[in-house]
Structure formats: structure tokens, C-alpha cells
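Table S4 entry, Hypoxanthine phosphoribosyltransferase.
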Amino acid sequence: MNNDILKTLYSKEDIQDACRRLGQQITSDYKGKKPIVIGVLKGAIFFMTDVVREMDVYIDIDFIDVSSYHGGTASSGSIELVKDVELDVKGRDVIFMEDIIDTGRTLKYLEDLLAERGAKSIKVCTLMDKPEGRVVDAKADYVGLEVPNEFVVGYGLDYKGMYRNLPYVGVLKPEVYSDK
């Protein structure tokens, strides 16, 4: 897998530092509250686990799964709800844990969905933000790292289900995903 990586953007240590910082920020902001932390599957599982271990507040945990890439390297623009949350969000503070915010479409879809269901507040915590990729007005409240407009994998991010288990974030070599 490592041979498919053009360059490393963020090391395991960089990611751990970002998770620690975000966990401390969320702890400060949610002192005395019990938010629902919702991980956006599958990409956010590693990030969510590492951040919540740094949080010193009571939480409920749930997951949601949406698809917009459908195996490609760019968002299709079509959002499909694959797995819904099980907890009732009505009147609750919600924190979404995302691996990356790129076009912003998925984030906007999720925020609208939970707002319709009566969430008291909705905040977004993302490991990576790719503002150059934005096509809708969406932003995270907590950002770990900023990434350039390149195809990145590792630490939860994948290409066709592969590379999620890399302990760092790297740029995938174009020849790995380009049509040959």
C-alpha cells in the first residue's frame, strides 16, 4: 500500500496532535452537556475513536452512513442514505464526526436531515477540510487539518475500500486511480 502513495501529508503524530486538540476544544464547549456524537461511516471511525477518547464529557454515540463517491475519486453529487442513526436527535446537541469535508454536499445533506428532525444544535468536527473542493456553502466548527485539492487516502479515507488502515494521510499516486 505504501508504494501507492505519492507523498505523506500528515503523519500519525500530526493526526494524534489534531485529535487531542479537537477533543480538548469539544470538552470545553460541551461542559455540562451530553451531546450525541455521530460518526459518518466508514471513513470517520478512526478519527471519531481517537477524538472521543480525548473528550472529558458524557456522550452518546451513534453512526450514519451516506454515499456520494460510489467508488470514484470525486463526489457524484448524489447523496444516498445507507444507514440511519438509531438515536432520537430531537432536542439534543449533535456533533458530526467526519473524515473530510470536500464538496460540502454530504455535510449539508446531513445537517438538513437532523435539523428537520429537531436537533437542538448541530456542530461538525472533521479531521480534514478541503476548502478548494467546496461547491455548496458548508463549513466545519472543528477542523483538525487542512488539505490541498488532491486525492488523499489513509486514516479512514479510502479509494475503492482500500487504504483506510494506513496510519497517516497521503496523496494517492494518480496512476493508481486514473483510467489506463
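The two ends are 19 Å apart (CA to CA).
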